[in-house]
Every structure is written in structure tokens, then in C-alpha cells.
Design a protein that fits this description.
By secondary structure, this protein is α+β, with helices and mostly antiparallel strands. Helices cover 17% and strands 28% of the residues.
Length: 58
């Protein structure tokens, strides 16, 4: 059984950070957001003066 430190360390490796994405690369990871009970969600990510919207619906 993994201890709490190992689990926390493994999870934190997958979270995006402000300086994570290098130029000309793809990125996949977790985003930590506050829980809200909903059927729809939009995340807006500002990047170099452009805003990219990602929509999810049930």
C-alpha cells in the first residue's frame, strides 16, 4: 500500500504549472479546479493575448 507522501508526489507530477509548456510542444495533465455540482463546464485559458475556451457538457 502506498503511503500518503508517495500518492501526493505521484499526483503532483501530473498537474500543470505556470512554466510547464515549452514552445512547439503538446501538453497533457491535470487541472485543479474548485468542485461545483454542474452538468456543463467551460475553462478559459489565456495564452499570448488569445483566450482558448474548452467546453464540456453532460
Amino acid at each position: 500500500m502506498q503511503n500518503q507522501y508517495e500518492i501526493k508526489s505521484k499526483l503532483s507530477e501530473g498537474y500543470a504549472k505556470a512554466n510547464t509548456i515549452s514552445n512547439q510542444t503538446e501538453f497533457m495533465g491535470y487541472v485543479n479546479i474548485k468542485f461545483v455540482n454542474t452538468d456543463n463546464m467551460t475553462i478559459s485559458i489565456p495564452l499570448n493575448g488569445e483566450v482558448y475556451d474548452f467546453h464540456w457538457a453532460k
